[in-house]
Amino acid sequence: MEQDDLTASHWDDVITPGSVSIFGNLNSSTIHTPNNLNNEFNDLHIGRDAEEEDEDEEEEVQASRYDDEDHPVNDQSVDHIKQAELEQLNELKKEERNEHKNSLLSELTNGADAEDLLLASSSIVTPKKVNPSESLFNVKDSPIKFEPTPKTNEGKGKKTLNTKNSQAYRANPRSRKHSSKSIIKHLDARKLNKEEIVPANSNPLGPLDSEDGRSNDLSSIKSNNKAEQLVQEANAPLYELPKNDQPELTNPPVLVERAKPNEPEETNHAANRLDIIVSDPMKVGDITTAHIVYNIKTRNKNTSPESLPVTPEPITVARRYKDFRWIYHQLQNNHPGRIIPPPPTKQTYIGRFNENFIENRRLSLEKMLSKISNVPVLSNDPDFVMFLISEDFANESRERERQSGSAASLQNNDSLDNDKDDDSSLSGSTSSNMSAPIISGGGFMTSLFSISTKVSEPDDYFIEKKQYIDELEHNLRNFYRAIELIGTQRMDLIGILDEISLALDELAELEILKTTSELLSAFSEVQLKLKENLDRINLQDQLTLGFTIEEYLRIIGSIKFVFETRTKVYQQYHTFNQDLIKKQAQLDKQTRKYKMQVDKNNLLAFEVDKLKQKTAVYEKQFNTISDTIKSEVANFEFGKIEDFRNSVEIFIESSIESQKEAIELYETFYERQNLASV
Amino acid sequence: MSSSVPYIPDDDFENNNPFAEPILHSDPHNSLANDNLSRAPDAPVDQVQAHAPESDKNATEISDTNKELRRLLPERFTTKSSLQIKLTAIEKNRPGNPILRFDAVVKGLPKFRQSTYKDIRRTYNEVVKFNKYLIISNLEAFVPVIPNASTSYPSGGEDENKQLMNVWREWFARIVTNPILIRDDEFVYFIENDFGYSVINNNRKSSVASGLIRKTLKQFSVPYDEFEELATFRPLIKSAYLILQKLSKLEEKNSKTQKQLSIQIYDLSNQLNSLSQFETIHPGMKNMWEKLAKISQIQSDLLLIESVNELGILGDGIQNLIEDFYQVKEALTNRHLIMRELLQAEAQTKSKHLHATKIKSKSALDPLKVDEAIRSLEYSKKVEESLKLQVNRISGEMLIEKQEVLDFTEHKFQKLLKSLTLHRVDHHRKILKHLENIRLDIRIVDAKGGLSRLNRDNLTNLKHNLMQSQSSNGDAWSSRTFRSLKTEQEERERSREEEEEDAKKHDEGEDGRNVVDAKNAASLLGVATF
User: Fold this and answer.
1) Do residues A533 and A661 make contact, with C-beta atoms less than 8 angstroms apart?
2) E strands of B379-528, at which residues?
3) Is B282 near chain A, with CB under 8 Å?
4) Distance of alpha carbon A145 from alpha carbon A137, whole angstroms
5) CB–CB contact A14 B244 (8 Å)
6) Which residues of B touch A515 (CB under 8 A)?
């Protein structure tokens, strides 16, 4: 248990509890979910089940026990880290970077101590709140017991809320709808929850910018257990929040046709746990229609899936690249605000059937599908399911497209072009290309503002995020370019090494002297092996770092699209709102001035009503999208850290191995050729 | 062709046929095919007489072929005379023309007035002229070519000096161990002259064809060679020469690409830095990018150093070999030319002989004509003899020298590859060390502990498996306890007591931490290499 805490990210508190909670509740059964979260959760759950009737005290005891257990571990881990640092210090005493580290370390340890205390108190409080809710709802599903925990956070949330309040309440209408059917108490709880969501989501802004948040971050690098614990405690209720909603949602709002991104999955076990393998790329068609078809093999590990038919055998279907793009756009349309894992970029006509390219694309497609399937909302999307199992994809996709009115295939071209632009600048090595996306980004922004100059971004969060994403894209692009350049340079080097090895072989064949020949051919062999080594490490780097960066660049494209969608919705809302205000004023004037003209007044009133409705719809849509985006972006941050850390780790480890191999090659050469005696 | 016929044996043998005298002496005991040797132009060189008795003494006990060799190449069979030159310093002078300062010890060589000479100073260009003279005047030897005064290292740097010192020492050693070369008259002047030496025997022209004639002559088929080893040696050397040239170009390209790669890695480190500056949200990530940027920068520096080193070691070494091989090839060509001259001389003698017999057989004898015919026959015979002698001597010398050249080549290759290997091992070890140093930084980015955790849930300690793989008792990944760098270091320590302290520091540096400090790198890289 204690170790499990380690595995969870302690950055949760930095990002936002809200995001994690959503993340968690959506994913509880998918691979993506940090195991520990589930474990912790289940453990608690089991304990609770056994003592369901027990009183608060026991809960408290239990909780404190957890805490007690946690403390030593944390201390220990802190000690470990201290020790590690000390070792490193000794080792690298004279390096200047150590000074930096040193200071960092002291900062860390200080922070950790303080945080321990803080955490101890807060974590004890949390479970206290658990029980009332339990008794209140008496739902069998264990997670719900955590439900009311937000109360502890409530104070915090409200504090941070401030600017958000209005928005939070704006979001309320939906909850009110349901609340009419639920008990008042529950309404209260829900309200609380609603409030909780918003501050949680907006959290990142506050703490991030503040100095406190920064120092906390630093300290939590190493002593993360506490923070993790806290986050988990705080998150627990949010985590299961949607589940509570579920029973009440007898008539879910039909605002957005299919898009209810915030709506929860039916139940935890309804989520698909898909094992998707994209394999066997095959070239089909004649010269004019030649394309690659990939086999998608889907196996559902969930024994009682809702959206997928149960089959003993994995379902295998054939799809081509175009279809992947279709599902991508379809999902984009179905779930506004969601960051859909994007497919790999389109390739120029030439080189489509290049082996490396196909393999790379296959990998990307597989990753895309598995990422989609990791998000329950997406994995249960009927279009996605259809994509995975349909035998007659061409027709069905057309049908669905028509039904949803998404025009995914049309839109296809649109964003496809966008993507293409990105691609060209991505693969292009000139600096002029580099600046292209930025310019186009700016162009987008300016064009947006020139169309309706009055529309201003209502939420600072998005302004900041947009900037952040742009910068991130710019940096990643540079990064990618640097890696690519290194790759090509290494390829050159590989070619030269090959030639050197050949020349050495030739020289060896001359047999100037037998011993010389042996020496030279051995050296030639060393060069050849070095070449292979370099080749391997080069490929490895491209596949780890390069691949990850490229993927994230594509995801950034998705994010940008999501932002754009949101802006569009907001624009519409804005125009309607403007109209509404105008009409309202007109109506007021009319009713004041000409009380006689009932007809006109009625007409106006009707119009105003209609506009009000429309405005409400769009406002709601807008708010939903905004919330979704916030949580999605938080998730993105979360995933980004892990993905990049992993690929950097692989990068480092493979570099280490390649260095070892090089050393070994030379040492062996040295030894075998008796060079020591020269 | 005719231009090479008026070959003046006297002139040539005056300096270069020290065996002329011994031949006269030994002629009686030897029943050689070329019994006309006794008529070889008598231009005894003093110093040879000293060896003559010795070679005579031993001659009785040795087989015939050996005796012949001894007679032909007396200087090969004596240890009496020797010359030692010790290069002590390289003084700075105009760029590309440093002053070499050396001491010389002479033993058993005539004409030298002293036995030791101290602080002889010759500019590099003077030495080059001397070297050229040696090549022209010693046709029977493969004269080593003095390595260039410029290296691939940054000019004026410590590495360049070291390298020049080494290669020039090597050159002097090769020159003075060659018994033919040290008996060259010019050597006396080279050693004894004051500062400002110029080649004294300057007026001597190349005894073989040069320029366009040489080019034309080279087109003819190779004359018959009775020594198969030498016959195959020239093509061998020629193709080795060509391959080495190719290799040298490749080496250069390799080094250039490495340099570019290093620049690009540096660029990567810059990008990483800007990425880390921008990464304000997550300090762990920031730390990771920073560390990665630092590592890339170190790697870039190391790569740059390595590229310079590689070109300095392998590139320059190969360049030296190329020049040497070229000279060997030319010497072999000269031999061919002389052999052809011999053939021509033989033909001429034959025709003269025919002419003489024709005159003899005539009924009316014109005494004047007879006299002339006999004289010209005598003369052409003389020429033929001297050429024959020369060819024999050249062949004999070259057979020996060939072995020397091969040994030297082997040794040179070994040295080059050894030093290259050591450098590369050092290079990779440093990178490995740095890479291993930042492993923890990446693991602690978040609490999950990275991939190294391998799904082990109960792993509290993030620091597992972080051991440095290059501990003092061997490398972790192999069972070998031997380490090239270390042995090398120990040897160095043993040999250079006074530098022990320094070496030790170096040793520690290697085991403990980063060796590339800014100063080190700067001095190695010089000013304007990138």
Assistant:
1) yes
2) 470-471, 474-475
3) yes
4) 8
5) no
6) 410
Residue B129 near residue B176, CB atoms below 8 Å: no
Measured between CB atoms, which of B265, B447, B459 is closest to A8? B447
> Is residue B285 less than 8 Å (CB to CB) from chain A?
yes
Kindly identify which residue of chain B lies nearest to residue A478, measuring between CA atoms: B271
User: Which amino acid would we find at residue A462?
Assistant: F
The yes-or-no verdict on residue B473 having pLDDT over 60 is yes
As a whole number of angstroms, the distance between CA A609 and CA A613 comes to: 6
Picking from B261, B271, B262, the residue whose alpha carbon sits closest to that of residue A491 is B261
Percentage of chain B beyond pLDDT 90 is: 27
- Residue A291 forms beta bridges with which residues? A284
End-to-end Cα separation, chain A, in angstroms: 60
Phi, psi of A430 (to 5 degrees): -80, 155
3-state secondary structure of B471: strand
Q: What is the pLDDT of residue B466?
A: 66
Tell me which chain B residues have a C-beta less than 8 angstroms from the C-beta of A75.
none
The residues facing A276 across adjacent strands are: A298
Residue B58, Cβ density class (10 Å: 0-12 exposed, 13-18 middle, ≥19 buried): middle
pLDDT digits (tens, 9 = 90+) for A482-504: 998 999 999 999 999 999 999 99
Q: Which amino acid, B268?
A: L
Average pLDDT, chain A: 64
Residue ranges covered by each domain of chain A: 2-248, 268-425, 483-561+632-677
- Report, in this order, helix, strand and coil percent for chain A, each rounded to 5: 75, 5, 20
Q: Is the pLDDT of residue A41 over 50?
A: no
- Give A233 to chain B, closest Cα distance, Å: 17
Chain A nearest-CA distance from B25, in A, is 38
Q: Phi first, then psi: give them for residue B178, nearest 5 degrees.
A: -85, 115
Q: What is the pLDDT of residue A408?
A: 55
Q: Residue A519: which of B417, B436, B458 has the nearest Cβ? A: B417
The more confidently predicted of residues B172 and A203 is B172
**Whether residue A56 has pLDDT greater than 90:** no
Residue B510 banded pLDDT, cuts 50, 70, 90: very low
Nearest neighbour of B413 by CB, restricted to A217, A520, A644: A520
CB atoms within 10 A of CB B197: 20
Contact A23, A239 (CB under 8 A): no
**Which of B251, B406, B432 is opposite residue A663, by nearest beta carbon?**
B432
> CA B52 from chain center: how many Å?
32
Neighbour tally for B64: CB within 10 Å: 12
Task: Say if residue B325's pLDDT is above 90.
Answer: yes
The pLDDT of residue B465: 63
**CATH number for domain A268-425, candidates 3.90.1570.10, 3.30.1520.10, 3.40.50.720, 3.40.190.10:** 3.30.1520.10
Q: Residue A10: how many CA atoms within 13 Å on its side-chain side?
A: 32
Locate the chain B residue with the closest alpha carbon to A662: B428
Q: Is B464 on the interface with A (CB under 8 A)?
A: no
Beta bridge partners of A274: A300
What is the Cα B375 distance to its own chain's centre?
A: 47
For residue B83, the 8-state DSSP code is E
Statement: residue A118 has pLDDT above 50: no
The whole-angstrom distance between B381's CA and the closest CA on chain A is 39
Give the whole-angstrom CA distance, residue A326 versus residue A320.
10
Count of CA atoms in the C-beta half-sphere (13 A) of B288: 27
In contact, A538 and A497? CB cutoff 8 Å: no
B412 inside 8 A of chain A by CB: no
Beta-carbon contacts of residue A204 (< 8 Å; ≥ 6 apart): A14, A15, A16, A461, A634, B281
Q: Per-domain residue ranges for chain B?
A: 477-530
